[in-house]
Amino acid sequence: MFKPLKTKDIKNKKVTSVAAIVFNDKSEILIINLIKRGWDIPGGHVEKIDKDVYETLRREVLEEAFSKIKNIKISTVIRSYSNKEPTYMVIFKAEIDELLEFKGNKESIERKFVKPLQFLKIYSKDNDFDLMNKIIENVIKKQ
After folding, report:
1. Calpha distance 108→40 (Å, rounded)
2. What are phi and psi of 76, to 5 degrees?
């Protein structure tokens, strides 16, 4: 069970993954077509090579969407449990800095920009739609 928290504080929390709602200059968001999950926002797991969650996010967006980002801010912190221990996912708001040539890879096969409501219409039914809706609403409120 995932639960958005009312805090953005991630100090002393075990952050295991990150994702981002990345906007272009038309207020559209960057989405990727993932081989295993369908259309989603870019993100992934924290790795030991990452010095912090911001570096994790930059790496994941580059790997999955072939894009560089800027103006990265924490938007939502989500708690879940792994073996009865709380773990956290951090959702960021960011802007496109540079779009590189999209080549596709073992994770993602396509990227595009869509309006947030369009994304919610194509968001995979296997994923938690209500949670994603709250994430999108939270980011838009702060826009």
Report:
1. 10
2. -145, 140
The residue range of the domain holding 58 is 3-141
Q: Which residue has the higher pLDDT, 124 or 106?
A: 106
Number of domains in the chain: 1
> How far apart, in whole angstroms, are the C-alpha atoms of residue 127 and residue 14?
23
Of 108, 130, 100, the residue nearest 40 (C-alpha): 108
Report the DSSP pairing between strands 29-34 and 108-114. antiparallel
Do 110 and 33 form a contact (C-beta atoms < 8 A)? yes
| CATH code of the domain in which 81 resides | 3.90.79.10
CA distances from 117 to 73, 133, 137 (A): 21, 9, 10
pLDDT over 70 at 125, yes or no:
no
pLDDT band at 113 (very low <50, low <70, confident <90, very high): very high
Which residue did the predictor score with more confidence, 9 or 31? 31
